[in-house]
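Subject: for your reference before the review

Hello V.,

The reviewers asked for a structural picture of the protein, and I figured it would be easier to keep everything in one thread rather than splitting it across files. Below is the amino acid sequence we used in the manuscript, unchanged from the supplementary table.
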Amino acid sequence: MISDSPYQSGELVLASRVGIVAGLIGSALMLAPLELASQTTPASRDWLLKLAGVIPGSAIYAPFQLLVTGGVIHAILGAALGLLFAVCLQRMPRYAMIVVGLFYGLVLWVVGGLITRVLFADHLRGVVQSTVYLRACLVYGLVLSGAAALSTGLDRKPIPILPKD
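And here is what came back from the structure prediction:
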C-alpha cells in the first residue's frame, strides 16, 4: 500500500515483553488512585479482596490469602492487557500515543463495567463502575502509552523522506 506517512505501515511500537512489563507496572500504579480516593479504608486492599472473591469457594480462605490471590489476578490481567496494547499499537506521533493510551483506559473501564454487569455479583460491580476506577484505568492507559512514547525515542531511526511515486 502506498502511504505518505513517514511511519512504516504495520510497524509495532512496543515489543511484546515491554508491553507485559508496562502492563505489570501500570496495574501496580492503578492501585494508587483507589488508595488516594479513600481516606478511611484501604480501597486498593478492598479491590484485591473483591477481585479474589469472584473465585468459587473463596469464602473459606483467610483475608491474606485472598489479598495475594487478588493481587495475582490483578497482575495477570494487567500483563495480558499490556500485551494486547503492545501488539495493537502502530507507529504514530508521540502525542497521539498518549491520546490512544487514554482512550485504551476509557475502553477498559467501559468494557470492565459491561463484563461485571453481566458476569459478576454486585460486590465487584460497584467498584468497577465508579469514577475512581475510571481514573485508575486512565492511569493504566497513560503508563502503557508512556512506555510506548519512551520506546519510540530510544530506538529512533532516521526516516528517509522519499517520493512515493
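For the response letter, the relevant points are probably these. The chain has a mean pLDDT of 75. Helices lie at 16-37, 43-52, 63-88, 94-119, 122-128, 131-154.

Happy to draft the paragraph if you're swamped.

O.
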